[in-house]
Specification:
The protein has 285 residues and is α/β, with parallel strands linked by helices. Helix content is 33%, strand content 19%. Helix 1 links the parallel strand 1 and strand 2. The radius of gyration is 18 Å and the shape is globular.
């Protein structure tokens, strides 16, 4: 799956829409996408106009459905985050998304949509926030985008990893932001993780919150079924503790259940993060 030069692509906000303070970042994101050879179009819901526009889940989902079924777009980049993405799940047209077979990119709170699309449409999706194009003053993210996202095999994207337990793991990747992913627990959108690699990262959350969320995953009987665990950045936790803190939380579950654990500093909420293909079989060694 790839995105060809001169393709029309959509920028959406299925989670929280943006206020005026983010306009410059979004405009720079659009500018750099154009420079990379794409033709971006903005969702009418990128910006909110007040409290009455914050919860327009049905309208956002309807626009998404129109974009993928007849909008002529080659990809959808959701550039939002926050709290609201799970409000759209019941209104998305999963059959249309499966038929369209176009790449969808999102991160953080869009973990709910990414995993719902994997479960209901059974097509690859991509953990990546294109808004980084406008947030990275160094242009390194632009160079990465141009060299790895545009006109390249998206399912062949790689990044550096470090083994913490075991020497190899393979399988389709599911998961995402740990807090947002767990909003799917108990719903029809929560994936069967048997034989899958579980990817987890987080921006917020100190030791107590992250430890609690890991234990909730354990209580869901996930750790007994996965083929491996991929840890991204846990920004607040690693700032307040040592960089190995996420591994220390995960280690007892890995040792009890015998699954390998790999880490990467290339996935999470950083301005130079890479793209993670999800729903396709990946191998880490």
């Amino acid at each position: 799956m790839n995105i060809k030069l001169n393709s029309k692509v959509a920028l959406t906000a299925l989670s929280n829409s943006f206020g005026p303070a983010q306009r410059q970042v979004i405009e720079l994101t659009v500018e750099r996408m154009r420079a990379a050879g794409l033709k971006p179009v903005l969702s009418r819901y990128i910006y909110h106009t007040g409290d009455d526009s914050l919860l327009m889940a049905a309208e956002k989902a309807s626009e998404f459905n129109q974009l993928i079924s007849g909008g002529g777009v080659a990809a959808v980049f959701d550039i939002s985050g926050g709290d609201l993405s799970n409000l759209v799940l019941e209104s998305l047209d999963y059959s249309a998304f499966r038929s369209a077979s176009i790449p969808f990119f999102g991160y953080s709170d869009l973990s709910t949509v990414l995993n719902a699309l994997l479960v209901k449409a059974d097509v690859p999706v991509y953990y990546y926030c294109a808004r980084q194009l406008g947030e990275d003053a160094s242009r390194m993210q632009y160079d990465y985008f141009r060299e790895n996202i545009v006109e390249h095999d998206l399912n062949g994207i790689t990044f550096n990893v470090k083994p913490r337990r075991g020497s190899a793991m393979s399988g389709p990747v599911f998961g995402g932001n740990i807090r947002c992913f767990l909003k799917l627990a108990g719903t029809v959108y929560f994936p069967d993780l048997t034989g899958k690699i579980l990817f987890l990262e987080s921006y917020s959350g100190g030791l107590e919150r992250i430890a609690s969320l890991f234990h909730q995953i354990n209580q869901l009987d996930v750790f007994s079924r996965i083929s491996g665990l991929l840890l991204g950045n846990f920004t607040q936790l690693q700032r307040s503790r040592q960089p190995q803190a996420p591994w220390e939380i995960a280690r007892p579950y890995a040792e009890k259940n015998g699954f390998p654990v790999f880490e990467t500093d290339k996935l999470g909420h950083g301005p130079l993060d890479r793209c993670l293909p999800m729903g396709v079989s990946l191998s880490f060694i």
